[in-house]
Amino acid sequence: MNPLMNIGEAASAAGVSAKMIRHYEQIGLLPAAERSDAGYRLYGEREVSVLRFIRQSRRLGFSVPQVAELIGLWSDSQRSSREVKTVAQRHLADLEEKRREIEQMMDGLSVLVKACHGNDQPHCAILEKLAWGSPAEHRPQHKPQIKKTHGKAEEPGTGAASHIDLMAWMRGVQVHHDAH
Predict the structure, then answer these.
(1) Rg from Cα positions in the chain
(2) What range(s) does the HTH merR-type domain occupy (predicted)?
């Protein structure tokens, strides 16, 4: 019989943090742990194997729903490898699309960076290009004050929604080149 491990031991064995184990239990990727008489979580080799599987899947960028689907397939001895491959192919196609979007952003940003002299003068080609089509008199009269959420300042681009919004915005932005 394999001895049971506490959450710290299981975390160490699986290469994840105890916080992530609790999170995976909370969202249902990992079943609720057995508890000791004192109420401490206890894990066996099976749970550690699932945690390793989750870690490896997440390192490859699979989403939580995709990981859940893969765990379901892993647990189904009647599955076909075709089903597993379909999940992986879908994910690969998503990653390829994200790569194309990032390459487009990098290309656009590279053009902007090259257009800027980066000197002590106030004129900036980057700002000019970003504000393309907006009259100068509509330039903002304030500097934004980032609001804090849950005691922390929200950094630009940290949330999935802001990343998605940026991707959608970039698809609609065309970098305009000056004739001179």
Answers:
(1) 24
(2) 4-73
Q: Are 175 and 112 in contact (CB under 8 A)?
A: yes
pLDDT of residue 139: 83
pLDDT tens-digit series, residues 12-71: 999 999 999 999 999 999 999 999 999 999 999 999 999 999 999 999 999 999 999 999
Percent over 90 (pLDDT), the chain: 69
Assess contact for 176 and 131: CB atoms under 8 A.
Answer: no
Upper half-sphere CA count for residue 17 (Cβ side, 13 Å): 3
CA 82-85-90 angle, 5° bins = 125
Entry pTM: 0.69
Residue 29 burial by Cβ neighbours in a 10 Å radius (0-12, 13-18, 19+)? buried
101-107, long-range: CB < 8 A, 24+ apart = 101/167, 101/170, 101/171, 104/170, 104/171, 105/166, 105/167, 105/170
Q: Give the chain's domains with CATH numbers.
A: 7-79 (1.10.1660.10), 91-139+153-172 (no CATH)
